[in-house]
Design a protein that fits this description.
The protein contains 18 helices and nine strands. The chain has about 600 residues and is α+β, with helices and mostly antiparallel strands. Helix 4 packs antiparallel against helix 6, helix 6 runs antiparallel to helix 8 and helix 16 packs antiparallel against helix 17.
């Protein structure tokens, strides 16, 4: 086989499609014949059978009224009853719009005399029976003109026979009706002998009409319908067997050609599969041999080139992942989703800093400082990345990071940032234990303390920089606010401060206490600031009491109730003598006692320094 794989598969597909098309065409033909048979039954035979039933029913009602009139023996013949019945039927809208019970009800409402009412009903039944018979005649004539019937000699003959037998029925009904009218006249004249003779003739005429109806329904329509059902079932079975046969042939041919084609594809495809699995497991040192000259060979070459490209991307990602978050590197190299334009989004920005690091670094060698910072950044960065945060940059001993779409869900990034900050405080204790080995000292080791600021709000995010150097970063007032909050920690002796917007989004998951209402440097609008204390439900009882007393003291402080505020903040010191926010407010209260704030003081504390 010198043809391409595509042409081979295409040829097999064409053959299978051809076979299935033939099967479909033949099946469609048989099914159309089945539909034709069903149409004959539903459109002609069943309606005809129903019409014959109606003719019989109207005849029975006519005989019933005849019997009732016979028993009543009315003195009047009601000669105008036929005209009255025709007018009443016209007023009612015809037989089809009214059931027999409805017609009887309307006659009973209009005629009070029993004999007259029975005679009117008698005439109505005669009119409706004749109308139903005319309807059946039209239906047979319509069938004879139908192309479906005309194309089938057997059906044409059957409809012709039906027409001939139905044509005779109006005469039989007319004879019966006239005999009934004769009976009424003889009964009115009082000739008992004539009445009896006519009565016998009525019975014979009714039996004759019933025989005619039975010939149409029992002898014709029912056998015809059953025959059509049998024929439709045969056609359906033929279509089914044909479809199964063609499907079996197509399956056998498809399996045969597929087996031959598969033999030529299995080995190289299996090698490609093994190579793909090796790549999935991280092995990029695989190289496949090209053993043919068809599309598989081209695929193998492409695979080898892909492996080379993956090696190159892996090297780039590994290298730049040390400088930029790997997710951003991936986006820049593969998706290019961060290189087009900036966007305004609600995100959470994080700043952290080591308190007094400049003075600490002066005590150690450059090598020791680098070791200390590298280990510190490694530990602190892990908590940020594990919570899906993006490390934007390292600024000396400070870390700037941010959370938000597309790296996190829109409603979870403030909580993730707070959890990362809490985790960093735990890691800082572990880091202190590593300092002797990092610095090679056992004495005079520094005591490290972190300050963290977190702010949530609108920022501009995008790739920012020159044409030769860019950084995927965030800018805006909320970035500056996070930096100011980090710096504000030193005024309260706190570790983690967040803005009011962040608190609104985390108050159900993170336990916080409000610290102050401040106006930071560079901003005119005051903000509420909160200290992150821990996860919701995980604080100790003493910490919860501390929070409650501090909040009570803060409320009294803002209301200028200095003694009450002093008592509440004092209780905070009793619970934790290291609670620096409470000590800060106690110091302010002492100042306000000697130099009270202005009368219109709004409780805002202004910071002039960054």
């Amino acid at each position: 086989m010198n043809k391409s794989i595509g042409s081979k598969i295409y040829a097999i597909a064409i053959c299978l499609v051809f076979l299935m098309a033939v099967a479909t065409i033949i099946s469609t033909y048989h099914l159309s014949r089945v539909n034709g048979q069903i149409k004959l039954v539903s459109q002609y035979y069943l309606p005809l059978d129903q019409s014959m039933g109606e003719v019989r029913a109207y005849g029975l009602y006519e005989i019933i009224q005849f019997d009732r009139l016979s028993r009543e023996k009315p003195k009047s013949l009601f000669e105008d009853s036929s005209a009255q019945a025709q007018q009443l039927l016209k007023d009612m809208g015809g037989c089809e719009k009214n059931s027999r019970s409805e017609m009887l009800l309307k006659v009973r409402e209009k005629y009070s005399e029993i004999a007259q009412r029975q005679r009117i009903v008698f005439e109505l039944m005669e009119l409706c029976g004749s109308e139903e018979l005319e309807k059946a005649t039209r239906l047979v004539e319509q069938g004879l003109a139908d192309p479906l019937v005309r194309s089938d000699p057997d059906q044409s003959l059957k409809f012709a026979q039906l027409k001939q037998e139905i044509v005779d029925m109006p005469d039989a009904r007319k004879i019966l009706h006239e005999t009934l009218l004769i009976y009424f006249r003889e009964m009115a004249s009082g000739n008992e002998r004539s009445v009896e003779v006519v009565r016998q003739q009525v019975d014979r005429d009714w039996v004759f009409l019933g025989k005619k109806i039975n010939e149409v329904t029992v002898a014709r329509l029912h056998p015809y319908s059953l025959g059509i059902a049998d024929k439709a079932a045969d056609l359906e079975r033929q279509a089914l067997f044909l479809s199964l046969g063609m499907t079996a042939v197509a399956s056998i041919l498809g399996l045969f050609f597929a087996a031959r084609l598969t033999r030529n594809l299995v080995k190289p495809v299996r090698e490609l599969l093994i190579g793909t699995r090796a790549i999935e497991q991280g092995n990029l040192n695989i190289q496949l041999k090209v053993t043919s000259s068809d599309e598989i060979a081209a695929l193998t070459n492409s695979f080898n080139q892909m492996v080379g490209g993956l090696k190159q991307k892996e090297a780039i990602t590994e290298t730049f992942g040390q400088y930029v978050d790997p997710r951003i590197v991936k986006g820049l190299i593969e998706d290019q989703q961060f290189s087009q334009k900036g966007e305004k989004r609600i995100m959470t920005v994080f700043f952290s800093d080591i308190e007094g690091f400049t003075a600490i670094s002066e005590k150690f060698s450059a090598e020791g400082v680098v070791k200390l910072l590298n280990q510190y950044f490694t530990m602190m960065s892990d908590s940020i990345r594990q919570s899906n945060g993006i490390i934007d940059k390292y600024i000396g001993d400070a870390i700037m990071a941010f959370w938000g779409p597309p790296f996190t869900q829109a409603d979870e990034h403030p909580t993730l940032a707070c959890l990362a900050a809490l985790e960093q405080l735990k890691l800082l204790k572990q880091f202190d234990q590593l300092l002797p080995d990092l610095l090679g000292l056992r004495l005079d080791l520094p005591k490290l303390n972190m300050r963290i600021g977190i702010s949530t709000g609108n920022v501009i995010v995008g790739s920012i920089g020159s044409t030769v150097a860019k950084s995927y970063t965030v800018i805006g007032d909320n970035v500056n606010l996070a930096s100011r909050l980090e710096s504000a920690n030193k005024n309260y002796g706190t570790h983690i401060l967040i803005c009011g917007e962040t608190w609104e989004r985390v108050k159900e998951t993170i336990e916080c206490r409000e610290i102050d209402f401040i106006r930071v440097s560079g901003k005119t609008q005051p903000i509420r600031v909160f200290e992150v204390m821990g996860e919701k439900g995980k604080l100790e009882a003493s910490e919860m009491q501390l929070k409650l007393h501090f909040e009570a003291g803060l409320s009294a402080y803002r209301a200028l109730r200095w003694e009450e505020a002093k008592q509440e903040f004092g209780r905070c010191i009793e619970l934790n003598n290291q609670d620096k926010p409470a000590a800060t407010f106690l110091s302010r209260i002492e100042q306000f006692k000697t130099k009270p704030p202005a009368k219109d003081w709004d409780g805002i504390w202004n910071f002039s320094e960054k």
